[in-house]
Amino acid sequence: MGKLVVIEGLDGAGKRTLANGLTEALAAQGRTVAGHAFPRYGVSVHADLVRDGLYGRLGDLSESVYGMAVLYALDRRGAADEIRKDLEEHDVVLLDRYVASSAAYSAARLHQDEHGEFVRWVHELEIERFGLPVPDLQLLLRVPVEVAAERAAKREQADESRARDIYESDGSLQARCGVVYDGLANIGWLSPWQVVDGRSNVNFHSLLEPLFTP
């Protein structure tokens, strides 16, 4: 059975770059990797509804923290069987965002922390009720909010299709989300976490070592 590894972090933290580096490092070790990114835009109707909500195209549903979280959760539930299959066939399944994203962003929207009611609700819905696979390791790619915002802005300028949504454009929300992410990592929510400094060179092999150490 393969290992389920999740990359979490603020918008613009560099999660895609980290995922690419980890994939290359694993391949160099002779290990097979399957990857998924959430939300699964263009693949899942729930993900496409999420996108509509993030750009204000779902009326007042966009304002509902729980309503948006259910759409995110249904997108992940729709991918659960594929993730399980990949875990049977590959050494590592690497996810760009997962359950902790909803926990962090939605708790931040409600001005709650990692011990709040919303984080408990996400666990009950996605892990207990939906039975989503639990990660073996979660990597928090930590960067200052200002750095993440600058990177997101540059990405937007370079690619019109990646215009910032209402969450990405809210600096206060991003700052609160970063605090919740730190809290989730500190308590080891769902599984062990490692914090990665997104401003320095990453030793990919050292990040992976705990996964394959007996």
TrEMBL record:
It catalyses: dTMP + ATP = dTDP + ADP. The keyword Magnesium does not apply. Its EC number is 2.7.4.9. PROSITE patterns: THYMIDYLATE_KINASE. It is an enzyme of class 2 (transferase). CDD domains: TMPK. Residues 7-163 form the Thymidylate kinase-like domain. InterPro entries: P-loop_NTPase (IPR027417), Thymidylate_kin-like_dom (IPR039430), Thymidylate_kin_CS (IPR018095), Thymidylate_kinase (IPR018094). Keywords: ATP-binding, Kinase, Nucleotide biosynthesis, Nucleotide-binding, Transferase. One of its GO terms (biological process) is dTDP biosynthetic process. Gene3D superfamilies: P-loop containing nucleotide triphosphate hydrolases. One of its GO terms (molecular function) is dTMP kinase activity. GO terms for cellular component: cytosol. Belongs to the thymidylate kinase family. Phosphorylation of dTMP to form dTDP in both de novo and salvage pathways of dTTP synthesis. This is Thymidylate kinase. It comes from Lentzea albidocapillata.
